């Protein structure tokens, strides 16, 4: 067995590998960038070494530095995790040349599957079903446009060396092709150092189903069942589950056997995943991931196997001790990806301090894989995934119920996140019914984002009551009995109500609140009523004459965050001077929505642009983001150039 393991990665996957290594008695070495000096994986490892500045090209993608650290600290193996260098055949070869063990397949196997075009050719020779498409060497714009039209729109452009939804564009109209090709090429070059693309026929409403394989160095290969990863947004998986629901036994077996056939065709060893698209009871090879997948925990929970442990054992030369016939799935597991992103604003990635991050632990059916803890900074340099949250059950229904329960017990504050969005997805009747396809989230976008809770007004009143009581408490602690102090009003005669102005999910709401002997009297516009408010074990309880609602609560410097059954309310008290009209810095134009790097400026000063026209392209959180015109306007000034690093809120373009 390996004695000392360096993990060439960061975040939750580095922490996850460290846990298994520790269980096996293997010492661990972490590497980190300057931005990750206090990261959780650095604290968990037995040793840790800085390999460069925050940008990935200067740290986590520096193969030479990583191998140098491994040799200097006496590590005998390197685990690449996923992303970064995990599917870089040159890195795998360099590790082997340095006399170290690479935890993964051979460099030749990675190379065979690393280019999607080459992989499809190999799979075609091996008899694995393929989607119609183009994966040729000619990569000029004219060829890609011609091939796309020849295949027939809609088509999917994909970065040949890519994965994880990077460098991917769906094209439905001829006029979209050129811009989509340029965007996919830019993103592929930035993420993988390779701008080559392939073109595939875009199947209508397919499912994304993948098969986990495990192969040793002695010619044994098995498949560890299947996973459904159909629920995606911008080609990034959001929900994964195992086994994939509602597949016939014959289709499952055929896919599993095809996955083993694909792995054997390239002499594969270690853990890998074959991804298929499934439509009309037929399946088509999409790609092979020659690494551990983000969603591997759902397979672990239904198989009872620790995939990282078997990666290490296989790399150490151990044979698989089980055959395909001996493997049986047990129950169902569902996973969701918790992201620092704002669903209400087009899922814009968030940066900032994670002031609170807590989650339920202890039940053997629940699992939270994360690389973060309270107080950590979410930087603009890396993927904004906060955690993977997984639950198991004897049935799919029970697994979903348990996952919703686990999410309800989480407390996340300091920045916007998709926790309540995930709860709404899992609770959607169509998801519970197993009506899955890759367009699921797109088709239900408005329903998932705009659905109003029946307790919206109760949340407003609860927030108002809390802000009122906080101000009263602060006044009492100061010992100031003056009627001029505090939020509450005071009148010699008449109604002693307090007028409150609250920001509730970016909407300003105004109401009057009057304390009573057993609670509050409220008045808003022409409506009024009474309610009581109490604080009990991290819950705020609202109650009137006909109903009672208990909101989960998190409090931080942004204000108050209430959640209930998949709905979230971000609440803050609006100070009058902060709400005054014109309280900005005078700049009229377009600002950077986050910290990142400008990759393309598509306009010039003096240009007239139309609503919806692309203006600037920037890269942040490993993804490309387009800033488009909100209205017809004339640009008076362009303040940035391609390559510039910009800060959140910085003015990029001024308008007349």
Describe the structure.
- This protein is of the alpha+beta class.
- The protein has an eight-stranded antiparallel sheet with strand order 14-13-10-11-12-15-22-20. An eight-stranded antiparallel β-barrel has the order 24-25-26-27-28-29-30-31. Strands 3-2-1-4-5 form a five-stranded parallel sheet.
- Helix 7 (141-151) crosses helix 8 (177-192) and helix 12 packs antiparallel against helix 13.
- The longest helix has 23 residues, at 456-478.
- The termini are far apart.
The percent range for helix content is 25-40%
The strand count comes to 39
The gyration radius over C-alpha positions equals: 27 Å
Percent strand equals 25-35%
Low-confidence stretches: 577-586
- The pLDDT mean sits at 91
Strand line-up across the major sheet: 14-13-10-11-12-15-22-20
Assembly status: single chain
Largest sheet: 8 strands, antiparallel
- Separation, N- and C-terminal Cα atoms: 68 Å
Structural class: alpha+beta
- Helix tally equals 17
Globally, the shape reads globular
Short description:
By secondary structure, the protein is α+β, with helices and mostly antiparallel strands. It contains 17 helices and 39 strands.
Key attributes of the depicted protein:
single chain; alpha+beta; 8-stranded antiparallel barrel; 17 helices
Task: Walk me through the topology.
Elements: E1 4-7, H1 11-23, E2 27-33, H2 40-44, E3 47-52, H3 63-73, E4 77-79, H4 89-97, E5 101-102, H5 107-114, H6 116-126, E6 133-134, H7 141-151, E7 155-159, E8 168-171, H8 177-192, E9 197-201, E10 207-215, E11 221-233, E12 236-242, H9 249-265, E13 270-279, E14 282-289, H10 296-303, H11 307-315, E15 332-339, E16 341-342, E17 348-349, E18 352-353, E19 356-358, E20 366-370, E21 377-378, E22 385-393, H12 396-408, E23 411-413, H13 419-427, H14 429-432, H15 440-443, H16 445-450, H17 456-478, E24 498-504, E25 507-516, E26 519-524, E27 527-536, E28 539-543, E29 548-556, E30 559-564, E31 567-573, E32 589-591, E33 596-601, E34 608-609, E35 614-620, E36 623-628, E37 633-638, E38 645-646, E39 651-655
Parallel strand pairs: 1-2, 1-4, 2-3, 4-5
Antiparallel strand pairs: 6-9, 7-8, 7-9, 10-11, 10-13, 11-12, 12-15, 13-14, 15-22, 16-17, 18-21, 19-23, 20-22, 24-25, 24-31, 25-26, 26-27, 27-28, 28-29, 29-30, 30-31, 32-39, 33-35, 33-38, 34-37, 35-36, 37-39
């Amino acid at each position: 067995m390996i004695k000392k393991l360096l993990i060439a990665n960061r975040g939750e996957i580095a922490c996850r590998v460290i846990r298994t290594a520790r269980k096996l008695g293997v010492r661990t070495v972490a590497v980190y960038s300057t931005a990750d000096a206090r990261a959780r994986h650095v604290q968990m490892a037995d040793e840790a070494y800085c390999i460069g500045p925050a940008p990935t090209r200067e740290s986590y993608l520096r193969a030479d530095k990583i191998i140098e650290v491994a040799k200097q600290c006496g590590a005998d193996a390197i685990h690449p995790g996923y992303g970064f260098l995990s599917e870089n055949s040159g890195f795998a070869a360099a590790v082997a040349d340095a006399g170290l063990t690479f935890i993964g397949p051979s460099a030749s196997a990675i190379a065979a599957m690393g280019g999607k075009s080459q992989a499809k050719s190999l799979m075609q020779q091996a008899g694995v079903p393929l989607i119609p498409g183009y994966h040729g060497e000619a990569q000029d714009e004219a060829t890609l446009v011609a091939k796309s039209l020849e295949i027939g729109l809609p088509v999917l452009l994909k970065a040949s060396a890519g994965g994880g939804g990077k460098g991917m564009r769906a094209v439905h109209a001829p006029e979209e092709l050129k811009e989509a090709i340029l965007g996919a090429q830019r993103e592929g070059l930035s993420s993988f150092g390779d701008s080559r693309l392939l073109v595939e026929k875009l199947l209508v409403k397919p499912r994304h189903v993948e098969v986990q394989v495990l192969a040793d160095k002695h010619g044994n290969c098995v498949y560890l069942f299947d996973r459904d990863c159909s629920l995606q947004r911008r080609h990034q998986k959001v929900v994964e589950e195992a086994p994939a629901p509602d597949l016939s036994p014959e289709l499952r077996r055929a896919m599993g056997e095809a996955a083993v056939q694909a792995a054997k065709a390239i002499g594969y060893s270690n853990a890998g995943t074959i991804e298929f698209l499934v439509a009309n009871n037929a399946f088509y090879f999409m790609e092979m991931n020659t690494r551990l997948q983000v969603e591997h925990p759902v397979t672990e929970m239904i198989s009872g196997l620790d995939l990282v442990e078997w990666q290490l054992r296989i790399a150490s030369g151990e044979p698989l001790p089980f055959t395909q016939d001996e493997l049986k799935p047990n129950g169902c597991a569902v996973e969701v990806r918790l992201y620092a992103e704002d669903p209400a604003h087009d899922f814009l990635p968030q940066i900032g301090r994670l002031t609170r991050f807590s989650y339920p632990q202890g039940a053997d059916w629940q699992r939270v894989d994360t690389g973060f803890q309270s107080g950590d900074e979410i930087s603009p340099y890396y993927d904004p995934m906060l955690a993977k949250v997984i639950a198991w059950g004897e049935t799919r229904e029970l697994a979903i119920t348990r996952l919703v329960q686990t999410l309800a017990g989480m407390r996340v504050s300091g920045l916007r996140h998709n926790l309540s969005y995930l709860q709404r997805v899992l609770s959607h009747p169509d998801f519970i019914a197993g009506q899955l396809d890759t367009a699921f989230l797109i088709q239900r976008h408005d329903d998932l984002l705009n659905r109003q809770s029946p307790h919206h007004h109760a949340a407003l009143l609860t927030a108002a009551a809390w802000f009122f009581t906080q101000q009263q408490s602060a006044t009492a602690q100061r010992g100031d009995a003056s009627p001029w102090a505090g939020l509450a009003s005071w009148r010699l005669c008449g109604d002693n109500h307090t007028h409150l102005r609250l920001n509730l999910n970016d909407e300003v709401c105004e109401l009057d609140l009057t304390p009573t002997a057993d609670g509050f009297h409220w008045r808003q516009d022409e409506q009024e009523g009474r309610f009581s408010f109490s604080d009990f074990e991290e819950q705020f309880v609202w109650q009137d004459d006909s109903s009672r609602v208990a909101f989960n609560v998190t409090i931080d410097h942004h204000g108050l965050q209430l959640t209930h059954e998949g709905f979230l309310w971000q609440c803050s008290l609006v100070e009058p001077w902060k709400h005054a009209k014109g309280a900005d810095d005078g700049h009229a134009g377009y600002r950077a929505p986050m910290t990142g790097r400008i990759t393309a400026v598509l306009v010039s000063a003096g240009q007239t642009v139309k609503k919806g026209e692309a203006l600037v392209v920037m890269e942040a959180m490993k993804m490309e983001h387009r800033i488009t015109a909100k209205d017809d306007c004339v640009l008076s000034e362009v303040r940035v150039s391609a390559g510039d690093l910009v800060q959140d809120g910085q003015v990029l373009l001024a308008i007349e």
